[in-house]
Write a structure and sequence with these properties.
Elements: H1 7-16, H2 21-36, H3 43-60, H4 68-82, H5 88-106, H6 112-128, H7 134-142, H8 150-158, H9 172-182, H10 198-217, H11 227-232, H12 249-259, H13 273-281, H14 294-307, H15 328-335
Length: 345
């Protein structure tokens, strides 16, 4: 059985959130669910992934309704990349469990949008991707006790400038307006995603998933950086992405400088590599290209290439239509025009 969270991370989450009611709820049946499925989704990872989804819900409010299918797909792809040997049925179960605990949390809300509209839509998404025993699994999750209005309290913690009176209830529209006012002082992210075209957007998300894997492989990112945190870097919205950079600041500075030159990154006023390094990553910019070794130069060039969806990627031998060969050697061969490639995805 595979497990992404290691002992140190499990201990960190269990100690930090020991008094969190949702964590306690997940811990009641999480170990049993983990033992039944091949994927090995431990309670601590399940809890953190559920919090990620809840955080997106509180931030986007009613706008989240248009994204629920994509949220499922991103989480499915993330788990699939982690272990390609696990059957897709098992991966659907893991995603379904995270969605189930998310539904449990928002069902505790006093506001009808979350309790009924959003809860119902998330249930429909799970049903659309149903797995063996999905109804009984959800029934077990929903049997776990969670206090009424737990989500109301969580909502206020995530959006502190919103309603503080105990006589008021969280409203999605108001929460969205408050968040928009707060983001004026937040650093700008890369405006990469084209939300007006679903076809292009899906291709872009696939490429970002690949880049996330490569940056982790190159040890550029902290191990606790999540796929959702990384995804936010390409939304173009003022936002703190919670990405911890492990490599030196020269790589980061030159990488962002080159990304901002690309035609697929939309230009934004007063956005520069320097400002992003300082404000998004809390580091000091360094433009000394002499500090880059050949590996760094290749890695930056590979990132620029992968993010351009018009560029072809090689298919993995014996794989499916969207199973791409993304080893450094394969990408180097593509960049050197030494490998016969497929059309861009």
């Amino acid at each position: 059985m595979n497990q992404r969270f290691q002992s140190e991370e499990i201990k960190h989450v269990s100690e930090k959130y020991a008094d969190n009611e949702l964590y306690k709820a997940i811990s009641l049946i999480g170990p049993q669910l983990e033992s039944e499925y091949q994927f090995g989704l431990c309670p601590e990872e399940c809890f953190m992934d559920t919090l990620e989804l809840l955080s997106g819900i509180t931030e986007k409010g009613e706008d989240i309704l248009t994204e629920t299918d994509n949220i499922w797909l991103r989480k499915f792809n993330e788990y699939k990349r982690f272990d390609r040997h696990v059957e897709e049925e098992e991966i659907r179960k893991a995603v379904g469990i995270v969605f189930g605990f998310t539904i449990l949390a928002i069902d505790s809300c006093s506001h009808p949008f979350y309790k009924y509209t959003l809860s119902g839509q998330l249930m429909q998404v799970v049903a659309n991707h149903k797995f063996e025993g999905w109804q009984s699994t959800l029934d077990r999750i929903f049997s776990v006790p969670l206090s009424d209005r737990w989500f109301d309290a969580y909502f206020e913690e995530e959006t502190p400038v919103t309603l503080r009176s105990s006589n008021k209830k969280p409203k999605a529209a108001k929460a969205k307006k408050k968040i928009e006012r707060k983001t004026n002082n937040k650093p700008k992210t890369l405006k990469y995603y084209k939300h007006g075209n679903n076809g292009i957007l899906m291709k872009q998300r696939h490429r970002v998933d690949i880049v996330f894997c490569k940056w982790n492989e190159w040890r550029w990112l902290d191990e606790l950086t999540t796929a959702n945190d990384f995804d936010a870097l390409f939304e173009g919205e003022p936002k703190h992405c919670n990405i911890s950079w492990k490599a030196n600041s020269t790589i980061l500075t030159i990488l962002l400088q080159e990304l901002l030159k690309q035609s697929y990154i939309e230009e934004q006023i007063k956005q520069s590599a320097s400002s992003m390094v300082r404000e998004l990553f809390g580091m000091t910019p360094n433009f000394d290209r002499k500090r880059l070794d050949n590996d760094n130069k290749f890695q930056i060039k590979a990132t620029l290439y992968i993010l351009n969806i018009s560029n072809p990627l090689p298919l993995r031998k014996g794989g499916g239509d969207d199973d791409y060969e993304t080893t450094d050697a394969a990408i180097q061969a593509v960049l050197s025009k030494e490998l016969r490639t497929t059309k861009g995805i």
